[in-house]
Structures are given as structure tokens and as C-alpha cells.
Amino acid sequence: MFLFAMGLLLVILQPSTGQFPRVCANTQSLLRKECCPPWDGDGTPCGERSNRGTCQRILLSQAPLGPQFPFSGVDDREDWPSVFYNRTCRCRGNFMGFNCGECKFGFSGQNCTERRLRTRRNIFQLTISEKDKFLAYLNLAKNIPSKNYVIATGTYAQMNNGSNPMFRNINVYDLFVWMHYYASRDTLLGGSNVWRDIDFAHEAPGFLPWHRAFLLLWEREKRRGTSPEIQPLLTESEDYNNVSYQSHF
Ligand SMILES: *[C@@H]1O[C@H](CO)[C@@H](O)[C@H](O)[C@H]1NC(C)=O
Ligand SMILES: *[C@@H]1O[C@H](CO)[C@@H](O)[C@H](O)[C@H]1NC(C)=O
Ligand SMILES: *[C@@H]1O[C@H](CO)[C@@H](O)[C@H](O)[C@H]1NC(C)=O
Ligand SMILES: *[C@@H]1O[C@H](CO)[C@@H](O)[C@H](O)[C@H]1NC(C)=O
């Protein structure tokens, strides 16, 4: 489902992306601990009828925790996303996403079988108007609410284990600021106590793969979030896929 979260294993194993899929941010999903939304294409969970994927028990890493995290059962991010959901979509072939409605990175087409190459350009080689356009897109992302994702504004315990969902909308840009924060923030131990000696996104082997996946998701979600609004503003919408931000981040 979504990754936002922790280490590299989870990023790679979890078949989808983002913070909380909006369709699963409700009492019913939380109490059932299931996030297997229907795929629009056929209306079945995980696009099952179209052979895209199935709703399955999540797979968790059996690897021991590192010494930086001497706790168990205190942080919602442990064994992500099992605190919130223990059944999610597992997608087949080149499908991915929380409902198997998307293609793996690098693929496109109805059945996600066509290779799709996108080129990131060096920002120093963009023309002034290309740079302006790029910044305009960033600005738009900051002003458009994410359609598919919401963020959690409380812990699972604060949500009374699901019976009191605490989520809110977020714009496409801030969604990713939030995911980055959520993955790397301190562990909250209750009250004002925090455990600072942990950073799931940076101080471990997950650093590079986590950020690579993060950027791929960012590019994708921003394209999706902005494209309908952008079409009238820009004729060469495809250029957007070919703009580099490498030196901005
Ligand atoms: C998954 O979560 C549900 C709801 O809390 C629970 O009833 C079920 O036992 C859990 N399944 C496993 C295998 O932990
Ligand atoms: C996609 O797969 C379906 C079902 O296997 C098939 O009917 C359809 O022709 C395929 N479409 C393309 C564009 O390959
Ligand atoms: C991206 O831009 C470069 C340089 O302008 C161009 O050569 C390349 O074909 C473009 N790639 C795509 C996928 O549009
Ligand atoms: C939430 O679940 C935990 C573990 O199952 C339990 O100890 C706790 O009492 C539950 N809290 C509420 C508010 O239901």
C-alpha cells in the first residue's frame, strides 16, 4: 500500500505508495485493519477480476531491529503498516498502487507492459521559460489538495485504535514534506518524552533506496495532482515530465 514510511525493505515490499489512501482513512477500514480498495477499472478490490492483484495479509520483514531502536510496540511505524492495516493489495506483474491501479515506475499502458522512459533534465540547462514553468508547477502542487492521500493527525492510540479516525487533507507538495517528516521523525514515547536516537529514513541502509522511491512517488503524485489544472495553462504538458529538480532538493 503506501509507503511513507520506514526502511528500505518496506519501501520495496509494499506494493503501493503515499501516506494514507483516502479511501482507507475511515473507521471501517481501520477496525477491519484492511486497505484493499476497489480499482476503478472493474470495481473489484485490488482489480482482482482483471487479474491485477489480490487482497492479502501483509508480509513483514523478520530481520531484527537495529540497536538504535530499543523498543517494541510504542511507535506506529513499527512493522509498517501493520499497526493500521494487516491486509493490503498485493499487485501482480507491473501493477502497483494501493488498489493496483497504477503501473510500476518505468511502465505505462493499459496493462502496464509498455516501457516508458522519462528523462530528468539538469536544471542549469533549462531555459528561463522552462524554469519559470517548473516553478509554476511547484507552486501549483502547493495549492492543489492531494486527491488520493490524506495524512494522519494522530497516533493509532489517539484514534482509539481506529474508532476515532484522525486524518486531514494536504496539498500535493506538503504531502511529501509530511511523508519525509513522518519517516524520519523521533519516536514519541508518550507525554513529552521522545526518543531522538532514531531516523528510519536517513541513518541506515534505507537512505538511498528510500529517497529514490520517495522522489519517484513525488514526481508521479505531482503529475497526477496537477495535470488537470495545468492543461489550460500550459500546452506542452509533457515537458513537465522532463524537467529536472535535482539541484533544488
Ligand atoms: C488483522 O486485524 C484484525 C482486526 O484487528 C484482527 O481481527 C486479525 O486477527 C488480524 N490478523 C492477524 C493475522 O493479525
Ligand atoms: C490488456 O489485457 C487485456 C486482458 O488480458 C487484453 O484484453 C487487452 O487487449 C490488453 N490491452 C493491451 C493494450 O495490451
Ligand atoms: C527530454 O529533454 C531532452 C533535452 O531537451 C530531450 O533530448 C529528450 O528527448 C527529452 N526526453 C523526453 C522523454 O521527452
Ligand atoms: C488499543 O489496542 C491495544 C492493544 O490491543 C489495547 O491495549 C488498548 O486498550 C486499545 N485501546 C483502545 C482505546 O481501545
UniProtKB/TrEMBL annotation:
Domain Tyrosinase copper-binding: 202-219
GO cellular component: melanosome membrane
Cofactor(s) this protein requires: Cu(2+)
Top EC category: oxidoreductase
Its membrane topology: Single-pass type I membrane protein
Pfam families from the UniProt entry: Tyrosinase
Subcellular location: Melanosome membrane
Segment forming the signal sequence: 1-18
UniProt keywords, alphabetically: Copper, Glycoprotein, Melanin biosynthesis, Membrane, Metal-binding, Monooxygenase, Oxidoreductase, Signal, Transmembrane
Enzyme Commission code(s) on record: 1.14.18.1
Biological process (GO), any one: melanin biosynthetic process
Protein name, as recorded: Tyrosinase
Organism: Gallus gallus
Name of the encoding gene: TYR
